[in-house]
Design a protein that fits this description.
38 helices, 7-stranded mixed β-sheet, about 25% strand, alpha+beta, Beta-Lactamase, about 1200 residues, flat, histidine kinase
């Protein structure tokens, strides 16, 4: 520290050290001499109270306290100091903190330099500045005064305007701030020399404007001195920016012209152009875009952008700024506002970020524009001035020429490379010969070929005779020489020569000679190209032989070959035309193909197919022969194309198939006859089986009744024999009916979800009694992995299983019969199930097994056979198992019992709840009881079929019932008889059910029995409406026996109590085969009531009744008397609903609704739908009912 203080004293710098309370701890001798104080007068005193004026003291203390608190100091402080003699001195202080060993600030140290004289000089200069301001402001040159510390003392108006700085900027700037970095070192060096007293006559430098733009300046500078010291400089500077630009522009212009020669390729050229252009204007964002006229596209071949490192992709010619410059053909200076104006006018579209300013110039070669060169700036709108666009446009012409020249050079290079590649590639031999028959050039193929034939090495200048003499005869050489002479006369030559090695090996060459023309039209050399055509020559010779063979085959061709133009004119036709059509070849060649077609549209169709598919096979048509006979032909034809894939002709082969077609028609007629016979047979079998089964049902029924009327043992035995015989006969008829359906293909599967366990239980229940009668063990078993709920046709499954079980019990006299069900496997959601029926019966021999599963076949055909049957059961089972997706078979030995098995393919059912509900519903018929004593009921319904069904149901439950067809009859009967319950239809002719109910309640009062609505209305709202009208309960159609039993049980023996019941919606029948919607649950219920014939008869009655009703209704509809068919519609709707014909019922209900609501425009179409639905019913209901 002592050495540092001594050093400061030697260089005339004041030094003072203070503690944190700003008391002076130390001052050097120079400080004491400078202030006039003695050391003891200063040390220990508060510095600011001793050396700072009262006016400035508070501010100074606050500033130094803040610096101590933040430990942050300025680079220097320029403060006044009061000496002991009260004079004011000015010092520039550099202040630093003093710290202890731990780094804690314990005081401050200040070193100051006297600036008093400089301040006085500066003030003087400022005075001069004011006086000279007016003079200097009128000067065009830039005038400036700066102090030796490079602060500006004065600048004139031209200086400010040129550089763009204001007075506030100038006060805070130094010379270092405005000098271009590249020129700063040189200018500082010149100023130092000036301060040393050296002459600096001229300076040349570059200042930066406020916007950062360089200004080139040249001028004179001198220095102001005071007391032998420099205090300021004055410079008068002239703006030479335009001159510098012009010089640089000229250099860049010539440099770009040379770039086309010096650049190795186009990318190098683009980069060099960018580099050269950056010497005269700002090019941080620069691109060159070239216009492809053929593709109408813009390709950005060079693209530099500060905001994107990704090169701009080529794009179709659109509405960008680049395209706008190309369209206008003019250079463009565009500010951001100019951009947006063009966008608003719809002249351009914005692609990317809009720059603050942009310069664009077309790249033109004469009148042709090849692209655009452009620079832009995204931040500084003053980056370019409008004169810069002139510079860019001036340069752009040279850039365009350089690019075009380089592109041409590259094209020439590529072309030369291609020519060289062509010259050296392929199998061609290429060479050239001068007028004196000397070799002037050749390719490698030629060199190798000459060497292989002669062993000589080809060289430029070698004579043609030397090259060819060894393997070409004199005669051939003379031919070659003559060809060369003609070529040198300007006539191109083409010829073939044969080369012979003399050992039986020869080759053929095809040679082409052409003069090599110069620009003036003269030529000195002839080029030659030779190609090995040996294989071609051999092929030509072979072709000649083949052509002779073809001619012979062609002339003996039995089918007709032809070739015609697209218009049908014959170009070629085989001699067989005489045999096929009766025309000679010459006669046929004068015909047009269209004249031969019996049906002209056939030729049009053939042509259309040819032009669509290019070839047609097996096209059948009829042609007319010369003697006007018609023959049927089969044509295979195709289009013939030229090298441009243009259709030019048609060729084909035509075969006479008249005899073949006659034979085919005979076969079809025979087949149709056979099919008709089979159909008649099947129909006969079906009709006969049905007609026989009807009286058989009557016979069986009478036998059952007769059984309960006799007590004589002998008569009972006769009756038992009759029962067995009739059952056997009925089974035979059923088998025949099934067989006829299967053979006719009318047996359709009804796939539903079933409980397999329940189905097996059915089989067991069905045959358990029969097995017990024969003292057989009858069991069944289902494996654990077998799904319980499956989707299949239960009826057909049980039919097969019943047949096999029945046979097993029939042919087993002792032992057991066991049914086993297991899952064999499956794929996806499919399961393969196997059913095995094993017995311990008589068994079957190997030869007899071959006879099984065929129609009407029995193993025991003797007159004394022990077992009866039609022999159809297994045949039907085989076909049913195949319909179910499986197969059937048997494993057996004579005397050892048999195992019959069959498989089915099924899916696992998911609607388990619905299946269980259906099972419960199916059991309800068995659960219905028999009323004791018998209730006395009144049934009110206008439909006879509904009456029959309901009476049968009531009869089965032990009820006695009267029938009324309308409300009047109901009132009449109810007033005469005391009924326990009345079932009332709602919609009836003459008096409806609601009105009848009101009248009965009024007439009978408390003696009125409960009245239950029984109608096709099915919704809950309907039920509530009927309850509100005075009816006591509600039941929907079609009526289920369980529901009927429930209502009778509810009201029989009870007093009348009104109460609303929940309506039961009618269940919709699923769509069936042939489009018929028939609820088979309803059919099964009707069968359970009165048997198959009763159920079928109800549908027959409905068919006859509805046909008559629709015939009458059709007349009303035609006359537009729509209200006249309402009663008819109501009757059809109710009956169809009862019989489960939901489609007919729904359409009748819809039609009834439309008429009541006045929607009469819909009536005609809806009535047609009703007739169609009824026709569908008539066509399909018998087969549907009889097949289930």
């Amino acid at each position: 520290m002592h050495q540092f203080r001594s050093f400061l004293s030697q260089v005339n710098l004041a030094y003072v050290s203070m503690d944190l309370d700003l008391r002076v701890l130390y001052v050097n001798d120079y400080f004491l001499q400078y202030t006039g104080y003695k050391r003891e007068e200063v040390v220990g005193q508060n510095y600011y109270e001793l050396f700072v004026t009262e006016r400035e003291r508070p501010g100074r203390i606050q500033e130094i306290r803040k610096a101590l608190q933040t430990q942050s100091l300025r680079s220097y402080y320029e403060w006044d100091l009061i000496t002991k003699s009260k004079s004011v001195k000015i010092l520039r202080w550099n202040i630093m903190f003093e710290m202890d060993a731990e780094g804690t600030v314990i005081g401050i140290t200040a070193v100051g330099k006297d600036m008093t004289d400089k301040r006085i000089a500066m003030e003087a200069l400022k005075d001069n500045k004011i006086r000279l301001q007016d003079l200097f402001d009128n000067a065009h040159d830039l005038i400036q005064n700066i102090s030796t510390d490079n602060k500006f003392i004065f600048v004139n108006r031209a200086w400010k305007e040129k550089l763009g700085y204001n007075d506030f900027d100038i006060e805070n700037l130094t010379l270092n701030d405005i000098v271009h970095p590249y020129y700063k070192a040189k200018l500082i060096y010149q100023l130092r020399n000036l301060y040393k007293g050296e002459d600096v006559n001229k300076i040349e430098t570059v200042f930066l404007t406020k916007s950062g733009k360089p200004i080139h300046l040249i001028g004179s500078i001198n220095c102001s001195w005071q007391d032998g010291k420099p205090i300021a400089t004055r410079a008068i500077l002239h703006d030479i920016t335009d001159r510098i630009k012009a010089e640089r522009l000229q250099k860049v212009y010539y440099s770009i012209a040379n770039l086309a020669i010096s650049s190795k390729d186009l990318p190098s050229l683009y980069s060099a152009i960018h580099r050269e252009l950056s010497k005269i204007i700002e090019t941080h964002n620069f691109y060159i875009a070239l216009f492809d006229e053929e593709k109408n596209a813009i390709n950005f071949v060079y693209y530099v952008d500060q905001l994107s490192n990704i090169p701009a992709a080529p794009r179709p010619f659109s509405l960008g700024m680049t395209e706008y410059v190309i369209k206008t053909g003019k250079p463009l200076y565009a500010s951001k506002a100019d951009f947006m104006k063009l966008v608003e006018e719809g002249k351009i579209e914005v692609n990317g970020i809009v720059p603050e300013v942009m310069l664009s110039s077309p790249l033109s070669i004469g009148e042709r524009i090849i692209g655009v060169i452009a620079v832009r700036d995204y931040k500084n709108p003053e980056a370019y001035v409008k004169t810069d666009i002139e510079i860019l446009h001036f340069i752009s012409n040279q850039v365009a020429l350089a690019i075009e020249r380089k592109r041409n050079e590259e094209q020439i290079t590529i072309q030369n490379a291609r020519l060289k590649a062509i010259f050296e590639s392929g199998n061609h031999l290429m060479w050239s010969i001068s007028r004196n028959f000397q070799l002037t050039s050749y390719n490698q193929n030629f060199f190798n070929d000459v060497y292989s034939w002669s062993g000589k090495t080809a060289t430029v200048g070698m004579k043609l005779s030397t090259l060819t003499g060894a393997f070409i005869s004199e005669e051939t050489f003379g031919l070659i020489k003559s060809a060369y002479e003609l070529a040198f006369a300007g006539e191109p030559q083409q010829f073939e020569i044969e080369l012979d090695k003399g050992n039986g090996v020869s080759q053929w060459r095809e040679v082409l000679l052409n003069p090599i023309y110069l620009e003036d039209g003269s030529f000195e050399d002839v080029s030659a190209i030779a190609l090995d055509i040996t294989e071609k020559k051999i092929s030509q010779l072979a072709l000649a032989v083949n052509e002779e063979k073809f001619r012979q085959i062609f002339e003996s061709f039995q089918d007709l070959y032809y070739k015609t133009s697209l218009d049908g004119e014959f170009q070629l036709i085989s001699p067989s035309v005489q045999e096929v059509l009766g025309y000679s070849q010459s006669e046929a060649m004068r015909l047009n193909a269209s004249n031969l077609y019996v049906h002209g549209e056939d030729r049009e169709q053939l042509l259309a197919m040819l032009f669509k598919q290019t070839s047609v096979r097996n096209f059948e048509t009829t042609l007319r022969t010369k003697n006007h006979h018609e023959i049927e032909v089969l044509i295979n034809s195709r289009l013939i194309f030229n090298e441009n894939r243009e259709a030019i002709a048609i060729e084909g082969v035509c075969r006479d198939i008249t005899e073949l077609k006659d034979t085919q028609r005979e076969l079809i007629r025979a087949k149709e006859l056979a099919e008709t016979s089979l159909q008649v047979k099947n129909q006969f079998l079906a009709n006969m089986s049905h007609e026989l089964r009807t009286p058989m049902n009557g016979i069986i029924g009478m036998i059952d009744l007769l059984h309960h009327t006799v007590a004589n043992e002998e008569q009972l035995d006769y009756i038992d024999t009759l029962r067995k015989s009739s059952d056997a006969l009925l089974e035979i008829l059923n088998d025949i009916l099934d067989l006829s359906k299967i053979q006719a293909g009318k047996l359709q599967l009804n796939l539903t979800g079933i409980d397999l366990f329940y189905s097996l239980e059915k089989i067991h229940s069905l045959f358990a009694n029969r097995a017990t009668q024969k003292d057989l063990s009858f069991t069944y078993d289902i494996s654990e992995d077998t799904p319980r709920y499956i989707i299949t046709d239960e009826t057909r499954l049980l039919q097969v299983l019943s047949n096999l079980t029945s046979n097993a019990i029939k042919f087993t006299n002792e032992g057991s019969v066991h049914v086993q069900v297991s899952r064999l496997g499956g794929e996806g959601d499919k399961h393969l199930l196997e059913f095995r029926v094993k017995d311990s019966g008589i068994g079957i021999s190997e030869e007899d097994i071959q006879l099984l599963f065929t129609n009407f076949t029995q193993l025991d055909n003797s007159s004394s056979k022990s077992f009866g049957g039609t022999g159809l059961g297994l045949a039907i089972s085989k076909q049913l198992s195949e319909l179910l997706g499986g197969s059937i078979g048997v494993e057996s030995e004579a005397g050892q019992g048999s195992t019959f098995w069959f498989t089915i393919v099924c899916q696992e059912a998911e609607n388990i709840t619905q299946i269980n509900e259906q099972l419960i519903s199916s059991k309800e018929l068995e659960e219905v009881g028999h009323f004791e004593p018998s209730p006395y009921l009144l049934l009110v319904d206008d439909n006879q079929i509904n009456q029959k069904v309901a009476l049968k149901l009531l009869e089965r439950m032990g009820c006695q019932a009267d029938v009324a067809s309308n409300g009047y009859e109901a009132i009449d009967l109810a007033s005469q008889n005391r009924y326990d319950l009345i079932f009332m239809d709602i919609q009836m002719p003459e008096m409806d059910g609601v009105t009848a109910t009101h009248e009965l309640k009024k007439l009978l009062g408390t003696n009125c029995p409960p009245i239950v609505a029984m109608t096709a209305y099915s919704m809950k709202d309907d039920a509530e409406k009927f309850m509100n009208e005075g009816l006591d309960d509600y039941i929907s159609k079609p009526v289920k026996i369980s529901d009927l039993y429930d209502r009778i049980s509810r009201w029989y023996g009870h007093n009348v109590e009104s109460g609303a019941q929940t309506a039961e919606p009618v269940s919709a029948a699923a769509p069936e085969q042939n489009g018929l919607q028939l609820d088979m649950n309803v059919v099964d219920q009707l069968r359970s009531i009165g048997g198959d014939e009763f159920a079928l008869q109800l549908y027959v009655d409905f068919e006859e009744e509805t046909a008559e009703l629709l015939e009458e209704a059709r007349k009303e509809v035609a006359a537009q008397h729509y209200t006249g068919i309402l009663s008819t519609l109501h009757q059809i709707k109710g009956t169809a609903s009862t019989l489960g014909l939901d489609s007919v019922s729904t359409i009748a209900k819809e039609l009834e609704h439309d008429i009541l609501k006045g929607k009469l425009t819909l009536v005609s179409n809806t009535f047609s739908d009703l007739e169609s639905s009824f026709t569908n019913f008539r066509t399909n209901y018998r087969n549907k009912i009889l097949s289930n």
